[in-house]
Design goal:
- By secondary structure, the protein is mostly beta strands.
- The protein is built from one helix and ten strands.
- It has one helix at residues 30-36, and strands spanning 3-7, 14-18, 23-27, 41-47, 51-55, 60-63, 70-74, 80-85, 90-93, 107-109.
- Strands 6-7-8-9-4-3-10 form a seven-stranded mixed beta sheet.
- Strand 8 (80-85) and strand 9 (90-93) form a beta hairpin.
- The protein is globular.
- The model has no long low-confidence stretch (mean pLDDT 93).
Length: 141
């Protein structure tokens, strides 16, 4: 099993990710956009327990806008580290924080609320795919 190591922007929080991704996608949801200040967030979803903070756990803060996501960030630099998705026993990380991670997105999620069109041929889900227990409804590119 491959392990990738990463950190927040200032390096105060370091973490490892081990295991296989459940999904790799571009997220267009409004909550992520307002939290990150970007119109789209590349994300990698992994089973809960795949991400292990190896340094700086005391520097992690939590932003919780909804009960379905616990977004973790570095309190020193504000850098995004991970997001726990407790209801689905999943967590996600942001591939740009792990320099060696080979990000290969297979879809766009929450494309129904996009503010940046990304015509790249990947499936565009209005919300989430059916394999996550959601509608699986797609929208045109």
């Amino acid at each position: 099993m491959t392990t990738y190591s990463g950190s927040c922007a200032c390096g105060a929080v370091e973490f490892d990710v081990t295991g296989e991704a459940v999904a790799e996608a571009y997220c267009h949801c409004r909550i992520s956009a307002s939290w990150s200040g970007t119109p789209v967030s590349p994300i990698v979803v992994v089973p809960a327990g795949s991400i292990r903070v190896t340094r700086g756990a005391e520097d992690l803060g939590t932003f919780k806008k909804t009960p379905s996501a616990n977004r973790k960030f570095c309190t020193k630099c504000g850098g995004h580290v991970l997001c726990e998705i407790p209801g689905d026993a999943l967590e996600e990380f942001y591939p740009d924080t792990l320099p060696e991670y080979p990000f290969e997105p297979s879809a766009h999620i929450f494309y129904g609320s996009w503010s940046l069109a990304m015509p790249d041929g990947l499936p565009k889900f209005k919300g989430m795919p059916a394999e996550f227990g959601r509608s699986g409804e797609t929208v045109p590119e």
